């Protein structure tokens, strides 16, 4: 019987064959595709058989009475590896931490106050509908964005503002939306929020932070631009875009929207007990999945949550 490893590598090679379909003349495609599907079905069957056989293989009994032998190899288990999103998220956090940002963890269940009220969404305002949130029976909300953490970041760090200090914190988190999943939309994904407050925070500082983040992450100079946006919790609000770099398949004309940002709305500062007459702030938040997809040329966001080992093993 073929080994699991061998079958997996055959499957991988076979999957690569599918890319050739589009180069064939249309009348040959059907036949070629059917042939590949047949081979794949056979390999998948063989894989299942090999996996079952592996599980059934007899376990060598351990002699508990044998004297311990320090030079005998300690059995090792394959404990897996970090999920690519977590590896990349750590890179992002390391860049922020070199810029002087603290890191605070987000939560996976939140409430109406943090999701909406503290972020200056007026009660009953249609902007609330823009975030297609889930709710539990108890009316808790799995956060639709990491901005739900802004109030907590502001209140936790506001003492830093005394004596001319600042608040500088980033907050990575898992977020949830009532989305129909397709290649570019997932119901579950990751974001990273940033919050900065000081007596003289400016939009220029914000753009500097964002440009530094993306250029460091992608390891190259990038063209960036902003366009007007709307978020109740910032005024003005912007969308931050980067031009798809040539090294990542760009042709010099494709702009990608990477995150939302803006100057923190005075009401948000006030709700957190920070005097908006005295202090200014900026905040931003964007998806981690999208950032990673661009870096590795991935075309389907659903892979991240799919649990497909073949995909994960490529990292
Ligand atoms: N939370 C927004 C979203 O997911 C993105 C965002 C916009 C975050 C502006 C911010 C901000 O902190 O200031 O759509």
Describe this structure in words.
The protein has 315 residues and is α+β, with helices and mostly antiparallel strands. Helix content is 35%, strand content 18%. It has two domains: 4-58; 84-312, BirA Bifunctional Protein, domain 2 (2-Layer Sandwich), CATH 3.30.930.10. The chain has helices at residues 4-17, 26-56, 84-98, 112-115, 150-157, 203-218, 266-271, 288-296, 303-306, 309-312; strands at 102-103, 167-176, 188-198, 224-229, 234-243, 255-264, 280-287. The chain has a seven-stranded mixed beta sheet with strand order 1-2-3-7-6-5-4, with helices on both faces. Strand 4 and strand 5 (234-243) form a beta hairpin. Helix 1 (4-17) packs antiparallel against helix 2. The mean pLDDT is 91. The site of 3,4-dihydroxyphenylalanine has 13 residues, from strand 5, strand 6 and strand 7.
Largest sheet: 7 strands, mixed
Corresponding CATH architecture of the largest domain: 2-Layer Sandwich
Cα radius of gyration in angstroms? 25 Å
Which sequence of strands runs across the widest sheet?
1-2-3-7-6-5-4
Q: Which regions are unreliable across 5 or more consecutive residues at pLDDT < 50? A: none
What would the average pLDDT be, to the nearest integer?
91
The CATH superfamily name of the largest domain is Bira Bifunctional Protein, Domain 2
CATH class category of the largest domain? Alpha Beta
Assembly state: single chain
**Broad structural category:** alpha+beta
Query: What is the CA-CA span between the terminal residues?
Result: 28 Å
Helix-strand pattern: HHHEHHEEHEEEHEHHH
């Amino acid at each position: 019987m073929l080994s699991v490893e061998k079958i997996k590598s055959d499957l991988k090679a076979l999957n690569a064959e599918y890319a050739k379909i589009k180069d064939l003349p249309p009348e040959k495609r059907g036949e070629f595709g059917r042939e590949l599907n047949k081979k794949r079905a056979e390999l998948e069957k063989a894989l299942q058989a090999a996996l079952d056989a592996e599980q059934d293989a007899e376990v060598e009994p351990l002699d508990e009475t044998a004297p311990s032998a320090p030079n005998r190899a300690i059995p090792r288990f394959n404990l897996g590896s970090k999920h690519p999103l977590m590896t990349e998220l750590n890179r992002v956090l390391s860049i922020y931490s070199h810029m002087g940002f603290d890191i605070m963890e987000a939560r996976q269940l939140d409430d109406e106050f943090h999701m909406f009220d503290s972020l200056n969404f007026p009660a009953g305002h249609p902007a609330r509908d823009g975030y297609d949130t889930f709710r539990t029976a108890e009316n808790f909300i799995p956060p639709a964005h990491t901005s739900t953490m802004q109030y907590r970041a502001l209140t936790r760090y506001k003492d830093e503002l005394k004596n001319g200090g600042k608040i500088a914190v980033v907050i990575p988190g898992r977020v949830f939306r009532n989305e129909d999943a397709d290649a570019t939309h997932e119901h579950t994904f990751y974001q990273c929020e940033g919050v900065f407050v000081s007596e003289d925070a400016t939009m220029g500082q914000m753009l500097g932070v964002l440009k530094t983040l993306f250029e460091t992450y992608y390891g190259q100079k990038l063209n960036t631009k902003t366009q007007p946006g709307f978020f109740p919790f910032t005024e003005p609000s912007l969308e931050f875009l980067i031009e798809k770099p040539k090294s990542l398949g760009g042709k010099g004309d494709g702009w990608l929207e990477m995150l939302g940002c803006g100057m923190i709305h005075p009401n948000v500062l006030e709700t957190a007990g920070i005097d908006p007459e005295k202090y200014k702030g900026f905040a931003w938040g964007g998806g981690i999945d999208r950032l990673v997809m661009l870096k590795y040329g991935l075309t389907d966001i659903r892979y991240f949550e799919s649990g497909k080992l073949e995909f994960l093993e490529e990292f």
